[in-house]
Amino acid sequence: MNRNAPIKDVLAIVDGWPSSMSAVDQALAYAGQYEATLTVIVITENLSLAAAIDPMAYAQVLTVSDQQQSEHLAAVRERAKNAAIHVEVRGLFEATTLLPGLTKAEGQYADVALIPGADRWQNDGLRRHITEALIFAGVPTLVMPATWKPSPARHVALGWNASLEAFRAARAALNLVEPNSQIDVVIVDGLESAKSGQPLTGMHIARHLARHGHNANVHATSSATRGTAGALQFFAAHQNADLLIVGGYGRSRAVEFVLGGVTRELLGNQRLPILFVH
């Protein structure tokens, strides 16, 4: 346990359906490592506005949504009632379009945000929008696969391209990993520099990480067969890294939507825990 890590406030976002309960367990275990306060925000989509033109339908949908929120809040509170750490459970009940912005505001007061990945949300589009909102809030956002069992991070892979987001990701790594950790700095498509004998782009950041007491090495890999997102995940999994850390959204969301991007690919095809830092 890294008791000196500056992790005091952990935020988790779930939708409260049964498929998200394992994410509550993961959040409890993660926050427990740092003896941090855990805030769990249970979001409920207010679908009544879609029926506003029909007073009878509006009232019926509002009643169902209210009941659903109460049930989800009760389920999460029951899950967390025996936690050894301080846990706050709050609900957000709003129109679907407003929920990402509200969760972004919550993220601004957290050291790290946790969010379950695909297959544990009723509305996958909402999952993406909330995850993106948290990333753009500037809070390190850890997307958790269902199979992940939180443990102290002693070996991480850091995706590196010398961007501002990558620098911020490296600083987040210093806060989140254990002392004397293994940090693999991964350069995708940096093979030509390696073959020519020229210093790899990541040598300077590896030296900086080493000065903080970590065992940092630079690795070059190719995107030829898997793409950049696939190459990063394959490397991290092959090296048995506890976590992949990347700078999220080096370009605007609009450009990423039109052209595609590594962040969107990682969010859509995640195979291991990934920490995004913007």
TrEMBL record:
Cite the InterPro entries for this sequence.
Answer: Universal_stress_UspA, UspA
Give the matching CDD domains.
Answer: USP-like
User: What sections of the sequence does the record tag as coiled-coil?
Assistant: none
Q: Which Gene3D superfamilies match?
A: 3.40.50.12370
Pfam family example for this protein? Answer: Usp
Signal peptide (UniProt feature, chain positions): none
The UspA domain is annotated at 8-89
What protein family does this chain belong to? Belongs to the universal stress protein A family.
Protein known as: Nucleotide-binding universal stress UspA family protein
* Organism of this sequence: Sphingobium vermicomposti
